[in-house]
Specification:
single chain, alpha+beta, 10-stranded mixed β-sheet, 39 helices, 12 strands, Glycosyltransferase, GAP1-N2, GAP1-M, transmembrane helix, transmembrane
Amino acid sequence: MSRQPILQQYYTRGRQGVFRSNEGYDTVAKSPGLDNTFIKKVLHPFCVYDAPRELQERAASDPALYPEAFVSFRAESGELVIGRSVFVGADFTGQRNTFFSHNYVIPAERREEFIKDPAKLFGIQAFASHHETAAGKDLPPVLELPYQSGMPKDPKQWLSGIGVDERTFKQLLYALMVSLGSKRKVYVSLNGDVREASAAARRLLEVLSGCLPYEMRRHLGFVSYSSEPQSKKHIHVMFVEKGSIRPGSGISEKDFLFDLAYGRIAQVDWQEGVHSYLDFAWEYLGQQRVLDSFHAFCEEVLAGADPDMRLRLVTYYELCALYEIEKGQMAKHEQNRAGIWQVLHRYLSESGLVNKERLLQLRTVLFREEAAALAAKKLPESESIKQMLAAYSAIPKEPISTELVLFLMDVLLKGKGARRNAYVAEVYRYLSGSPELFGYVMRTVFGHKQVVKPLFEDYAVERLASFSQIGPTLQEIEFWANTAPQALRNASFMTAAKDKLLGLFAAEGQKLQAALHIHDFFERLEGAGGYADPLLDELDKALLKQLRLDSLAWGDFAQVVVLLEEKPQTFFGELDLESRQKLEHIQKLAILAGNRDVPLPEDFFRGWDEREMAIQQKLIGSLLDTSLEPDSFPLVALVFYRAELQGQDSFAYADMLKYVCEHGGEEVLFSFVQWSMKQRMFFTGKYVAPGYRQALKGLLLEGKGRRLRDKEWRKRWFSVRHADFRKLLEEVRSETASPIVKLFQRKSTAWLSLAILIVAGAAGGYLLFQPDSSADLTPLPAEGVATDEPGTSGAEGSTEEAASAKFIPAYQLMLEPKILPVNAVQER
């Protein structure tokens, strides 16, 4: 594949240019392949030249007296621009001084040639100083640029000659590297003749560039001469005319100022001390092969890193330390073992880095150093262990080193042997932060019986002792089950776990919930097998011993039974009397869970003495809802059952009805009575049990039978389908009736006879008082109706007599009888 050519551009004042048809400054010639827009936007801003004030004041016309402005920068599109601007005296008119700029545009694909060999950039000898109009406006592309290195044989001596000592050089290099990763500019003035200062600036830039890592060189932009400090895009370091670095000259308060012409350095945040890379660069200044070797190391390690990381000064401080260790210089490791491990870990854990082979080799070198020190009975610092473990955990899915495992076991044993308990605790803490490695170590420990106690049992028991709640304790057991399953077969560990859990369980307020949580945990825990059974047996014994039955809900009793249903007989044989009795209560109450298929009281309480039965009834009563529901009616019957009473009349009926009314209201009371009429336990044969009948009657008699006075409620009570209960209702209704109603009810027969006699007597009396008992009883004709019957002439007297007879109501005759004798009637 042929290399792309290097393109050129000339810029000066002429009669016309590429972009203008009249006289003035413009590009006067260019390579055909050079884009016009690139020329205008990228190259033109750098085609400038400001003559030194001193020469202007003298009106010096000799171009040899003027400095050259050497410039280089990286364009945003990737090309490398290398150019030079020089003073060339009078222009074509002979009246105006002018300058000439010549720029080379290096294709991005060829930029590395100039980056990795500073002499090819700083030693270019092929710059033009003028252009013949007759030559036309086209410049030929070139494949190579002739160059000659200007690097002094003894850079340190040369630097001293221009007034740059070791400290100043390090500060310059520091400022330049910082500026590449920030927006800060570096301004430098050198002593001496202005033209000589410009030439020295070019050589100094070549020396500094040779010390820069390749990535920083790729971004470096510089100008070897400017009359004044100027902030220009793409330019990081600018050499300026002596005396131009002054307040108000366009310098910001953040820029680095090296006014070396007057021995002043300002705004450089420099701290005395060790600067690993700067020290390294100064030490090997003049030995470019060593510097290039380091730069190649950085390129390899940083392959794939993000740009910010590649442009940070601290990156090269860190990599310099690693590079020196790789080369066998262990001084920095000895000075700061933990720090070196930390640096190595940081780079190993960088996901963007694509080539970590040399870093892994470095890790092996460092580990062998640590192992050798431990063999000499020198314990590594705990922080070194922390960073070492991090470095070994940085590569995902990397096989665990057996050498590392044995090393860590040795560290722990030697730490315990030296009674450095705090140190050992820290090592364990850092080790547990790498679960996979920690598990490998612990599984290895179980393979060596002589170290199980010091390295596992003592540590595990100490960890368990630190917990104050059941949840974290169970998590600790799970941690060991996952990390080293052999832990659950270790008697010391399981005993410690049991004692810890039982102690925490004793302080737990919600006993059943805590026990269920622990049971559920071990059921789900893989690998627990039968190793947890002794612990759970002790837990369940403690549960029965400490559980308060009156604190449980209905469903809780069934849960307790489920916990204990698979226990062997030996478990129940080991219970004390109180726990056995409590278990019997729980089993009985579990039957009632859900209020379904509640047995009859005599069956439920069979075999219980009065004291035990009273306990059960109290528990059932406490479990009933404050707001009673029909589903709970069978439980109410259990609560008010009295075994000491004889026969089926064995309930505290009055108390039972009062309880239902108080906890359910009238609706529930009515439903309860309805329900009770279907339960044989409340009957003697076909009749309501006498005690219950009496209690119901007392209930219905309350408030003078108020429950039957309301028309709607009376209908509801009489709707209950049971003959004996309806008879009871009639009794209550009769006994609560008003006095008048009672009177009619008690003498109904006598009153009926009297009424008949009164009616009969009234009728007979009426007939008796007629003038002629044998008179014609034919009804009188209707008023106004004529009649032709004979005897009508005597009707007039009869009418008068009838009209004189007074009508007396029957009730008045009964109350004030005024029956006249027969003779008196006849006389009349």
